Amino acid sequence: MEERFERVLSEAFKAMENAYAPYSKYHVGACVETKNGDYIWGANIENASFGLTNCGERSAIFAAYSKGYRKEDIKALAIVTDGKRVGAPCGACRQVLSELIGNETPIVLSNGKETVVTNMAELLPFQFNSEDLD
User: Fold this and answer.
1) By the 8 A CB rule, do 11 and 41 touch?
2) Of these residues, 57, 99, 104, 122, which one is catalytic?
3) Is the per-residue pLDDT at 131 higher than 90?
């Protein structure tokens, strides 16, 4: 694992402690690292009406955008789980992230045992985006 991702991963694991997952028992933490050195947390928040659940990575990216950050401000995104294997963003999160972070922005996935570094170009090829709406 690259040393430069240690802090963003550590912050994501701290964020995971705030997960609210009484149904799935699957905890997710995420952290957006900005180019100016801020670390913005997100965690999954479940709801008995499962469609209203919010994933950790969407919580983090929405929090960053709510603070005024935009895709050009994002240095990296870490997404961590307490699962048996590395967790990757679900389809809804991939679509959201494809618009809100750069295609080459590092996305660091970990479960504490294994770590993978990827990006949106790899996670969601042939993205549907604003260019399709012009």
Assistant:
1) yes
2) 57
3) no
